[in-house]
Amino acid sequence: MLWVLPLVAAIGLLGAFLAAPYSPRIDAAVTRLAFLLLGGRGIEIDVEREQALRSAAIGVPYREYAAKTYIYTAGAGVAGAVVGVYLGAAGLFVLASPGLSFDPNATIETSNVVQLGVFLLSGALLSAVAVGATYELRWRLPSVRADGRARRIDAGLPRTVAFTYALTRGGMSFPDVLRTLSDNERVFGEGAAEVDVAVRNIDLFNVDLVTAVQDLSENTPSERFGTFTENLSSVLQSGGDVSEFLREQYERYRDEAEEQQAEILNLLATTAEVYVTVIVAGMLFLITILLIIGLTAGDTLLAMRVLTYVIVPAANVLFLAYLLDVTRPLRAAGDEHEDDREDERGKVADRGRDPDQKRSGEGITAGRAVESDGGYTRPGAAADHERLFAYRRLRSVRETLASPLASLVDRPRLLLYLTVPIAVVATVVRLPAILAGGSVDVRALDDVLIQAAIFLSGTFAVVYEYSRRRLKRLESAVPELLERLASLNEAGISVVSSFDRVRRGDIGELDAEVNRIWRDIQWGATTEEALSRFETRVRTPSVTRVVTLITNAMHASNEIGPVLRIAAEQARSDLQLRRQRRQEMFTYLVVVYVSFFVFLVVIGALEYVLIPSLPDVGSIGGGAAGGAGGVGGAGPLGGFDGGDRDAYRLVFVHTAFIQSLLSGLAAGVMGSGSVKAGMKHAAVMLSISYVLLTFAI
Fold first, then answer.
1. What Å distances lie between residue 194 and 146, 219, 628, CA to CA?
2. Which residues contact residue 372 at a Cβ distance below 8 angstroms, ignoring those fewer than 6 apart?
3. Which of 136, 523, 546, 599 is surrounded by the fewest CB atoms within 10 Å?
4. In this entry, which stretches build a coiled coil (predicted)?
5. The model's pTM
6. Domain range summary for the chain, segments of one domain joined by +
7. Could you tell me which residue, 167 or 100, shows the higher pLDDT?
8. How much is the average pLDDT of 93-112?
């Protein structure tokens, strides 16, 4: 078995390279090896590639990235050569002839020339492919990441500018505004990460404000953000009114957000038509054509199986990927954070630090709070910090067990930890009956799998929809709350007293939350602490931005009425855009459902009307008229024998089930830009298909 060791070593090398981005130890080992062998000497800097690295925010110097690229390329070449030799040997083994055999234990001396040539050719070919692909992939990765960052920056730019304008309008100095924005990367995403670069240049390298902002315009991957920062640096350099400039930019980007959404909705309209035409009607047309060909010319069962089990799922998955890419700006503008909201709480605890701390930042790093010189504050502090880190890692688990229902509403994904084991156990218990007699009852197996899929998607959809509707009702009341707080503050009432007055009125779904805020203040919490607890309880994108804005504005001044007005205007604009989007997308949902019902009706007609009405060629003339292909001579179309009839019907049923599940997911992405939202549509469509094709017809 020693001949297998080179293959194992090659696969292990490739696995180590793939795991390096996720393992600091492996990555550090590759870095040390790269500098040990290359040391950065002789590596000339490519200006374009270096700019791509900066735009992608990879955080690795050019020479280090280049040296590691050469190591990855060389390792991939060696591994590719080894795997290529084994593939060549496998090919010889499969295609062996009496004069051309393969013995894995044979030496080069005893091997024939053809074997050696095949080994060298296959190894060299695969090595060349691995080298070229690895080298190209490594240098294209920064550009791909930069493009992704650019889209996320553009999507969040209106809110980033609104936040900056509000704090400037509230009296905070512009350098402090930039610091505040960079400290809230978890709220404003890549835009805040870009600003953090300018803040570090100012605080660590003593760069002046104008130069730091100009550097942002030169290195950012976003063209829109680059234009904004370039104009901002001109205003700062000329001594103009920054607040007025930000107000103009805020209004401009708000209008552009409406135009961008209109463009995306128009694109979705075209996409929905393409989906109905190609994925639904096109596949239905192919199935019908293949059935007719099978009746008249020959057996098409294999082609129909390939269409059902390969082409239909692949086409739907590709379409879903395209939909997710098209709706990315809409999700980045709000819905994406709504879907990721349930993960944020766990990540906050897992990071072992407070949610207000930055991901790159302070506090406990890798479970250890250290001094700037690398030492601990006192003896035994290392063990204490390890215990504290473990405690915080388990905090989310303890909270989930303490209040399971509330945790499920907050994080619907937790329900899968309960429902998936139940579905697996129920399926395993029912398997013996399906496998009885030494053969598999395919229809019974279908029943088990479809019922499990309906159970999983249906239960998740109920909890997810309840959670989402509750949060949307809370968000719809945010503008009213902000406007009332702004009116009271502009009338000279302090922020604390404003909450006391607001809670006495009716602000809809936020009544209970405002009462909790006031109760926290009465029990000794500061306004900032009470608002932070409110944000933790609700944790929607709108509430998170509002709390971040209010708490930072209070640090600059107690008169935050103008800031609250801007926040209320932005929140109301977001709600209006979301309402328009929901109304427009409802049409696409109807289109998907109509196409699904048409697909189901046609499949049902083929399954229960056309095929049963065809004659059984096995009972006509002893099957002599039909032959093995299933083509009969009774009637203008012929017929099927008994086995082919059942096989075709099974393919039709499976086609309906697969299309139901994937059409539901597509409907969710069209309607809400989320696969999770598509679970309810998938459950509904799958249930309808199952009932109609199994019981009703």
1. 12, 9, 68
2. none
3. 523
4. 243-270
5. 0.72
6. 2-97+109-148, 155-259, 475-576
7. 167
8. 53
Strand partners, 280: none
Angle at the Cα of 578 from the Cα atoms of 577 and 579, rounded to 5 degrees: 90
Closest to 571 in 3D by CA, of 550, 602, 599, 586: 550
Q: Which residue has the tokens 């805040």?
A: 192
pLDDT higher than threshold 90 for residue 5: no
Q: Please, what sign has the CA dihedral across residues 75, 77, 82, 87? A: positive
**What tokens does 496 get?**
């604390």
* 8 Å CB contact between 669 and 324: yes
User: 172 burial class (0-12, 13-18, 19+ CB within 10 angstroms)?
Assistant: buried
Amino acid at position 117, single letter: G
For 104-132, what is each residue's pLDDT tens digit? Answer: 555 444 456 777 788 888 889 999 999 99
Which among 577, 500, 573, 512 is positioned nearest to 538, based on CA atoms? 512
Average of per-residue pLDDT values in the chain: 79
Minimal CA–CA distance to 99: which of 81, 115, 116, 123?
115
Q: What is the pLDDT of residue 456?
A: 93
CA 652 to chain centroid, in Å, comes to 32
pLDDT of residue 110: 47
CB 514 within 8 A of CB 507: yes
Is the pLDDT higher at 399 or at 643? 399
Beta carbons within 10 angstroms of residue 512's beta carbon: 11
Instruction: Report the pLDDT averaged over residues 490-516.
Output: 86
- Strand, helix or coil for residue 365: strand
> Could you tell me which of 667, 668, 659 has the C-alpha nearest to residue 686?
659
pLDDT for 246 beyond 60: yes
CA distance 438 to 191: 62
Q: How many residues does the chain have?
A: 697
127: tokens are 């090595």
**The one-letter amino acid at 503:** R
Interatomic CA distance for residues 279 and 277, integer angstroms: 6
> 49 near 62, Cβ under 8 Å?
yes
Which alpha helices (DSSP H) does 638-677 contain, by range?
Answer: 642-672
DSSP 186-234: HHHTHHHHHHHHHHHHHHHH---HHHHHHHHHHH-S-HHHHHHHHHHHH
The residue to which tokens 């926040």 are assigned = 567
Q: Is the pLDDT of residue 361 over 70?
A: no
Taking the CA atoms of residue 21, residue 22, residue 28 and residue 34 in that order, the dihedral angle to the nearest 10 degrees is -20
Candidates 622, 552, 437, 633; CA nearest to 167 is 552
Q: What is the pLDDT of residues 585-599, one digit of tens each?
A: 788 788 888 888 888
Residues 95 and 61: beta-carbon distance below 8 Å: no
Residues 6+ apart with CB under 8 A from 265: 581, 584, 585
Specify the range with the lowest mean pLDDT, choosing from 16-25, 215-224, 567-576, 639-648.
639-648
DSSP state of 3: G
Instruction: Quote the CA–CA distance of 689 and 107 in Å, as a whole number.
Output: 61
Spatial CA neighbour of 667 closest among 384, 335, 275, 398: 275
Helix/strand/coil for 410? helix
